[in-house]
Every structure is written in structure tokens, then in C-alpha cells.
Design brief:
Largest sheet: 7 strands, mixed
CATH architecture of the largest domain: 3-Layer(aba) Sandwich
Strand order of the largest sheet: 3-2-1-4-5-11-10
Structural class: alpha/beta
Number of helices: 6
Organism: Actinomadura chibensis
Number of domains: 2
Strand content: 25-35%
Protein name: Class I SAM-dependent methyltransferase
Helix content: 25-40%
Keywords: Methyltransferase, Transferase
Distance between the termini: 33 Å
CATH topology of the largest domain: Rossmann fold
Pfam family, one: Methyltransf_25
Radius of gyration: 18 Å
Mean pLDDT: 93
GO molecular function, one term: methyltransferase activity
Length: 246
């Protein structure tokens, strides 16, 4: 059984509205171009496809896309956008679920590798990606760099968003490499806030590279964003591409 937390129906129904900025043309345009270039004329498989924020428009660009999704509620929202024939989705976890065929591209976006809460499961996720890739195929992950440089000695929390509608902060367990994202979201005009939280296991780029090597994949490229900016010590996230040898 996976350690990932399961998205509820209420969360799935709110997801697209609350992540509207991530679905904007400014964000999605470079993401789709990056992934479409890697897929070429081949098929793409999205781990944790969710409501189809990336998978649906990538399919509309002409890339055949399939998905794996743990939450039936998230998949149900996706199904309103694309039918099973257009974009097949298998319910299951991304570390062990296998779908038919080979793919030129397997990808995992928006920090979702951290939803697997143990190192063993993250390693199995890389192995599962390699299992689905054709020779020469690529595995792509988008995830944040742990912001531990922002933690003064003795402090365990880092705010990442403070606005009228939302206050978000992460708390860290540095020994277990775990963080908890806390969200306080204002629902209405009465000033009341809804509190939510989710657990994540963070990993440094070097640890992910070792997971890739265990799975038989080689690092091909690492950049700071979907536009291809260089990855530096000041980058807050990375898009990494590992290749299955031909």
C-alpha cells in the first residue's frame, strides 16, 4: 500500500479553482512545449495525473497521453475534460502500477514525487518509470529544492505565501526529511479560514540522481524552470530529465 495521502472529493472539486494560476498560459505554455519536444512522435505517461491540468492540454497538442492517478475523485474531475478513449487513466499508485505498452516520456510534475513519503517508494517510482520507458525514453520530474537555507537555527517553519485569501507555510523535520505544508484559506466574505495540511518527503537533486541510477537511468539535463534557465545554487526548483540508455 502506498504511503501517499489520498485526495478527497471536496479537495478534488476545489483543485482546479484553487490552482488556477498553475493552469495559466504563462505557466502551461513552456511546460507543454518542454514535454512535447521530449515526447516527439511517441507516447507520454503522466504519473499522478490528477485533474489533467497538464495531461489534457498535452493531449490536445497531439501527444498521446495516458495517466496513473491514485485518487478516483481527481480522476473523475479529469474525466469531465477527456473521455477514456482520448486519455486513458489507470487508478493506482505511481510506484507500482503498470499500464500496457512503452512510452517515449514519463513525467511527474509540481512536486508530486514528494507525495511518496518513504525513500523506498520514491526509488520504486523511478523503477516504475524505467519499466514503462522505451530505450532512449526520458523520465522528467519537476520538484522544489528544499528551502532549508531560509531556516534560522532553531526555526522549523518557512512561509511560502501570505495573501488576503491564503496563508501557507511549511514545517520541517530535518532528520526524517519530511515537511508538512499548512494552508489557511479564506472561504467566504465572513473572514473565516479553512485549514488544510499535507505531508511530503523532500529529496535533494543528488538523492534523486542516485534513485535514477538505481533504476538504470542517466541524468541528461537539469534546469531551473520549464523555459530552460540554468540551474544554480539559488534555484528554488528544478526540472530534471533522466534518460533510459538505448
Amino acid at each position: 500500500m502506498t504511503s501517499s495521502e489520498l485526495w478527497s472529493r471536496d479537495t478534488a472539486e476545489r483543485y482546479d479553482a484553487e490552482e488556477g494560476e498553475m493552469s495559466s498560459a504563462a505557466v502551461l505554455g513552456p511546460t507543454l512545449s518542454f514535454l512535447a519536444d521530449l515526447a516527439g512522435a511517441g507516447r507520454a505517461l503522466e504519473f499522478a495525473i490528477g485533474t489533467g491540468r497538464v495531461g489534457v492540454p498535452l493531449r490536445e497538442r497531439g501527444v498521446p497521453v495516458a495517466g496513473i492517478e491514485l485518487s478516483e475523485h481527481m480522476a473523475a474531475v479529469l474525466r469531465r475534460k477527456a473521455d477514456e478513449e482520448t486519455l486513458p487513466v489507470t487508478i493506482g499508485d505511481m510506484a507500482t502500477t503498470v499500464v500496457p505498452g512503452e512510452f517515449a516520456l514519463v513525467y511527474l510534475v509540481y512536486n508530486t514525487i514528494s507525495n511518496l513519503l518513504t525513500q523506498d517508494e520514491q526509488v520504486e517510482c523511478f523503477r516504475n518509470a524505467a519499466r514503462h520507458l522505451s530505450p532512449g525514453g526520458r523520465f522528467v520530474i519537476e520538484t522544489g529544492v528544499p528551502p532549508l537555507r531560509l531556516l534560522p537555527r532553531g526555526q522549523v517553519a518557512v512561509p511560502f505565501d501570505v495573501s488576503d485569501r491564503h496563508v501557507g507555510l511549511d514545517t520541517f523535520d530535518l532528520v526524517e526529511q519530511m515537511l508538512v505544508s499548512h494552508h489557511f484559506v479564506r472561504d467566504g466574505e465572513d473572514g473565516r479560514y479553512r485549514r488544510e495540511h499535507s505531508r511530503h518527503r523532500f529529496a535533494w537533486p543528488a538523492e534523486l540522481d542516485l534513485m535514477a541510477r538505481i533504476a538504470g537511468l542517466d541524468l541528461e539535463r537539469r534546469v531551473a524552470d520549464w523555459d530552460g534557465a540554468p540551474f544554480t545554487e539559488d534555484s528554488t526548483k528544478h526540472i530534471s530529465v533522466w534518460r533510459k540508455p538505448s
